[in-house]
Amino acid sequence: MPKIKVNDINIYHEIHGDGFPFVMIAGIGVSLGFWTPALLEGISNSFKTIIFDNRGVGRTDKPDIPYSLKMMADDTIGLMDALNIKRAHIFGHSMGGKIAQEIILNYPERVEKFILCSTDCGGSKAVFPPAEIIQTLLTDTEVMTLEEIIHILAPILVTEDTIKNKPELIEEEFRRYLKIRTPFYSLKRQGVAAGQFNSYRRLKKINTPTLVIHGKKDLITPPQNAEILTHLIPGAKLVLFDNAAHKIFTDDPEKFVKTLLEFLK
């Protein structure tokens, strides 16, 4: 798939399937390889699914300048413009959920249905994880082996049951999305941008059908954040997964896809 010039960067993207557009926005420090084949197949069977590398990761350009999540929302809209997509379902996971919030708050006319997964509203009203979890997320993985990365990141991304019962799947997933390592400087740029985000007072403006999905065992974004988002966004629907952590679509892939498709139909 080609790169497309958007604003000041070239964005790498992929398109899977046909139908109404479904745009997926990934979280901090991860390339589009973070999305699992099962998730992509489940969605692209019904929708034209657009995935891409955010500014600073994967095969997209990585300028060493200050980032903001509004800037990254503008990147996403610019990509939609370049692909001649006027309106789409928008799905954001983790930091991608915060980027998605900037999209719907600044470009509401571009969003058909809105899905937030494993994310929060930022600012003082959000519930944050312990400092050691944040520090782990900002580890410089460029200098680590795959085994070392799995050892420190898997326990905070998925449940103990998934690690125990699907070790080969976990290794394959990490190998896929770490094929292109994120430079530490751009990881920090994304981290600072995420830390500056705050949508708490703005979310009441949303009048788009919204689904909030969260795992009850999420260590990175405590599940109380899902309740906060659902309370703030008028008419939002909340679905909690009992046996899932931050990366719900790895822990419970079948239920996750089913939940998305039921909301979108």
Structure description:
The mean pLDDT is 96. The protein has a single domain (3-264), classed as Alpha/Beta hydrolase fold, catalytic domain (Rossmann fold, 3-Layer(aba) Sandwich). It has helices at 37-44, 69-82, 95-106, 131-137, 146-157, 160-165, 167-177, 184-195, 224-232, 248-251, 253-264; strands at 3-6, 9-16, 21-25, 48-52, 88-93, 111-117, 210-215, 237-241. It is built from 11 helices and 8 strands. Helices cover 40% and strands 17% of the residues. A hairpin with a 2-residue loop joins strand 1 (3-6) and strand 2 (9-16). It has 265 residues and is α/β, with parallel strands linked by helices. Helix 1 packs parallel to helix 11 and helix 5 crosses helix 7 (167-177).
Assign the CATH architecture: 3-Layer(aba) Sandwich
CATH topology descriptor: Rossmann fold
Quickly count the domains: 1
Largest sheet: 8 strands, mixed
Name the average pLDDT: 96
Count the helices. How many?
11
Secondary-structure element order, N to C: EEEHEHEHEHHHHHEHEHH
Summarize the structure.
With 265 residues, the protein is α/β, with parallel strands linked by helices. The protein has eleven helices and eight strands.
Please tag this protein with its features.
single chain; 265 residues; alpha/beta; Rossmann fold; 8-stranded mixed β-sheet; 11 helices; globular
Write the layout of secondary structure elements.
Blueprint: E1 3-6, E2 9-16, E3 21-25, H1 37-44, E4 48-52, H2 69-82, E5 88-93, H3 95-106, E6 111-117, H4 131-137, H5 146-157, H6 160-165, H7 167-177, H8 184-195, E7 210-215, H9 224-232, E8 237-241, H10 248-251, H11 253-264
Parallel strand pairs: 3-4, 3-5, 5-6, 6-7, 7-8
Antiparallel strand pairs: 1-2, 2-4
Helix pairs in contact: 1-11, 2-3, 5-7
